[in-house]
Amino acid sequence: MKDNDLRLDGNAAGGLLNEIFPFEMTTAEATCLGCGTTRLFGEVMFYRHEMGAILRCVDCDMALIRITRIHGYYRLDLRGMSYLRIATGGHQHGTGHLQ
Amino acid sequence: MATRQLKWQLAKVVEIRKETPTVKSFILDVPDWTTHLAGQHVDVRLMAADGYQAQRSYSIASPPEVTHLMLTVERIEDGEVSPYLTDELRVGDRIELRGPIGGYFVWSAFDDKNDDSPLFLVAGGSGIVPLMAMIRHRANSGKKVPTRLLYSSAYQEEIIYRQELDHISANDSSLRVIYTLTKRQPLNWQGYGRRIDRPMLADTIWQPAEKPRAFTCGPTRLVEAVANCLQELGYKPESIKTERFGPTGG
Amino acid sequence: MGISEAPWKQPYHSRAPTEGIASQQSAGTIFEVFMTSQFISPGFKRRAREADSAFKERIPPGQYETKDFPVLSAGPTPRTPLDQWKFSIYGGIAEDLKWTWDEFLRLPRETVTVDIHCVTKWSKLDTVWTGVSVDTLLKEVNLEAQSGIGYLIAFCDGGYTTNLPLPDVRGGKAWIAYEYDGKPITPEHGGPARLLVPHLYFWKSAKWVRGLKLVAQNKAGFWESLGYHDYGDPWKEQRYAGD
User: Which of A50, B82, B134, B175 would staple C120 via disulfide (CB 3.0–4.6 Å)?
Assistant: First the structure.
């Protein structure tokens, strides 16, 4: 098994991310702190095994998000992203302000 | 896309179909299912008596118009979940799943933004599953969106949904299915006989000027190679959607 | 057949309990307390081949023996060409130490047979590794003069890190291994060289190791910073922070 084959993409992370962020997350957009590329989560690399899950930048392999779930807690390291955009999916109230 | 937290629910197997020697489809009754878009997937979770859990994502093969959910699963040797599904599950058994998941790798015939775009679909092996949901949905919609499917398999007997694809395309000139068999071709084989490469794509794609939308799904290496080739052939990156199934998808 | 043996046969809406059901009868009413309502998939077992260990005393609590050698990847497999590979030791010492691959292979080597234990519960007995003892590498550092150094951080290609107390890599407890079972370690298993610290959970045996940073203050590594135990003694079942 070549190592490339062990890699999935952010589509497969949709369910896990939805446990934490109650939104559709494969279309969330993130900017990598390492190289500045912005991509949708559906396109980024996803590694997951029993210890935890990591989403990595396609271009520079930087860990965008690292997640574990241990003893009833999620821990997230979000330092690999300088920016994360998530569609609210609800009605827009037109003011641009958070309710 | 509705914002909500997906919950695990139990689905009951109502029918099992053998698609190929290593692939089965499971038709499921999912009591609390809402709806879905073609291309989305579900997470399936198995738990052993000792508490050990394994989870994998499987693309939904059925179109949104059908009540029962269909999942098509390839048995991966050494897989964690797929051998359980293909070897152990029986009609009447239940499995835990949650979904639908995914807003990135989806296509709807009723999405206004898609109106003029011809579809270019590239599948490797079991990567055909989400694309089949799109093809079935397209057939149900009655919209004759010009569509080409380039579908790579190792052997003819491993082509999933072959009869159905041939039937749909025989009755709809706006859908063209192009097969390639990479390991062995039968006598009088009409399709390609090698791995998908740039010349094959160059011969089969819609031209970039036609503003096509491309979806490619299958093993990681194939998906990345196809995405790169399409860009080299002039496709805009945002017009290409990819979904990688590694062997760990088994 | 009692309820707790075949919960999956019950209709879902009756939410048949699994293990740990406690039921009390009180004044003619039965109360069932559901410890979990988790659905058990009948006949499902983990894939890794379990062996009913003949060496139970060598299997730490909560572990099972496997004959497999599972690969857990947190990122792409690095592939540093050997002519660019260097191993370094630095931090709080007068001069950084560096070895090229050729120099590294010329160092005294040892072959050891050890048991390894992964926090994901598998243990593998009698694994054979060849490499350079960390004691050999640290010989060149006058550690007694560096009284402030109490810890180290192993750093690796791909960005992985793990932290260890200095005493835990001294006295014949740790190696930089480059062969497994008499053959070069494959990239999937951490080749060309990985840290080997078998007395701790195997996430501490960092794959693709490129060096050790000696520090005065402990600093959590890749998994330790996400809730895994800072030390990781399998015999005390120190899997997670707070265990």
Answer: A50
Contacts of B246 (CB under 8 A, 6+ apart): A5, A6, A7, A8, B219, B220
C78 and C157 together in one domain: yes
Give how many domains chain A has, as a whole number.
1
Q: Which domain holds residue C24?
A: 3-33
Looking from the CA of B203 toward its CB, the CA atoms found within 13 Å total 11
Give the integer Cα–Cα distance in Å for C144 and C164. Answer: 18
C22 and C64 both lie in a single domain: no
Q: Is residue C65 part of a domain?
A: yes
| A99 inside domain | no
- CATH top-level class of B112-245: alpha beta
Same domain membership, residue C193 and residue C100: yes
Q: pTM (2 decimals)?
A: 0.86
CATH 3.40.50.80 placement within chain B: 112-245
Give yes or no for a contact between A53 and A64, defined as CB atoms under 8 angstroms apart: no
Domain B9-101 has CATH 1.20.1540.10: no
Name the more confident of A54 and B113: A54
| Pairing mode of beta strands C209-215, C86-90 | parallel
Query: Are the beta carbons of C226 and A68 separated by less than 8 Å?
Result: yes
> C208, C194 in Cβ contact below 8 A?
yes
Dihedral, CA of residue C18, residue C240, residue C125 and residue C49, to nearest 10: 30
CA distance A77 to B139: 44
Q: Do C172 and C153 form a contact (C-beta atoms < 8 A)?
A: no
Which CATH number is C91's domain given? 3.90.420.10
Q: Is C74 on the interface with A (CB under 8 A)?
A: yes
For residue C227, give the amino acid letter: G
Structure tokens at A87: 């569609």
**Which residue from B minimizes the CA distance to A11?**
B102
Tell whether C56 and C130 lie within a shared domain: yes
ipTM summary value: 0.88
Nearest-CA distance C69 → chain A (Å): 14
Q: Which residue of chain A is at minimal alpha-carbon distance from B219?
A: A5
What are the start and end residues of each CATH 2.40.30.10 domain in chain B?
A: 9-101
C201 and C137 belong to one structural domain: yes
**How close is the nearest chain B Cα to the Cα of C46, in Å?**
7
Walking along chain B (250 residues) 10 residues at a time, the average pLDDT comes out as 80 98 97 95 94 92 96 91 96 96 95 82 97 97 96 97 97 97 96 97 97 95 94 96 70
Predicted pLDDT at A6: 57
Residues belonging to chain B with any Cβ–Cβ distance to chain C shorter than 8 Å? 10, 31, 46-49, 52, 54, 78-80, 83-84, 88, 93-96
